[in-house]
Amino acid sequence: MLEGQQVRPGDTLFTLSSERLSAAGATQQLIAEQLEQRLRLLARDRVLAADRLQEQLRTLESDEDYIMRELNIADMEQVSGGADWERSVSASAVSPCRSPSSRPRSA
Fold first, then answer.
1. Domain ranges of the chain
2. pTM score of the predicted model
3. pLDDT by residue (tens digit) across 25-38?
C-alpha cells in the first residue's frame, strides 16, 4: 500500500513479524551470535583463570617448602651453634648452584 491509496476490503495494510530488521540485517540473529560469542569468551576466560590460579598455588607451595627448609636450618643453627648448619645445607641442597665439594671449607 502507498500513502493516499484507496483501501479495499481484503487488502494487506501491513505485516507483523517478530523478526526485527536493521540496516545490518536480522537484528535478532546478530544479537544471538554476539551472545554466543560472549559465552565462548567467558568459558575460555574461566579456563585461563583456573590455570593461572593453579600455577599461583604451585608457586606458593614451592615458596612455602623453601621457607620451611630455611626455618629448619635456622633452628638447627640456633640450637647447635652452627655445627650442624653446614651439614644441613649440603643435605637439603638449599644452594643448588654449588655442590658440597665445591664449597669453600672453613679453617
1. 24-92
2. 0.44
3. 677 788 889 999 99
